[in-house]
Specification:
By secondary structure, the protein is mainly alpha-helical. 69% of the residues lie in helices and 0% in strands. The protein contains 6 helices and no strands. The protein is elongated, with a radius of gyration of 34 Å. It starts with a helix and ends with a helix.
């Protein structure tokens, strides 16, 4: 009985492996559509280099060249259209930035805004540390001793009970 069960398990495993192997070429074809490619290899390399610098607005951590999202496919097509017109890489990137903002770039340029963005956590940490030190210094200050009049008043209040 166990031998029969092992035979069924092995058959199911082989069938699943065969299914994965048969579907792998279809999955790979969905990611890289040859019809998107430019006929000129030099222009295609330029378009790929530009696409590698642009962020997929859907995936956000992938370039439009690596993404299989529909918007990334559309952006690749736009990049290739601009390259086919003869525009250089900087012109295409400038067009994309004008349309989508610096967020479209995977590596945005260093500006005052990006410096503030990266510097704010450090600044907030420093402000927090300075504030904590100041608060702890105030708490550790010992109060002045009671004067003779204050001690007498304290004794009077204690006697009233």
């Amino acid at each position: 009985m166990r031998a029969l069960s092992r035979g069924k398990t092995a058959f199911r495993l082989k069938a699943a492996l065969l299914l994965v192997c048969l579907s792998a070429p279809v999955m790979a074809w969905a990611v890289d559509d040859p019809s998107e490619m430019l006929p000129d290899p030099k222009q295609e390399r330029q378009a790929e280099a530009i696409g590698a610098q642009l962020r997929c607005l859907v995936c956000q951590n992938e370039s439009i060249e690596d993404s299989s999202a529909g918007l990334a496919r559309d952006l690749r097509k736009v990049v290739r259209e601009h390259v086919a017109k003869g525009e250089n890489s900087q012109q295409v990137i400038d067009w994309m930035v004008a349309r989508y903002g610096n967020f479209i770039r995977l590596s945005p340029p260093v500006t005052i805004a990006t410096l503030l963005l990266w510097g704010m956590p450090v600044l907030a940490l420093l402000i927090g540390i300075v504030s904590a030190v100041m608060i702890f210094r105030r708490r550790t200050a010992t109060p002045a001793p009671l004067s003779a009049a204050e001690q007498a008043r304290l004794r009077e209040l204690g006697d009233d009970r």
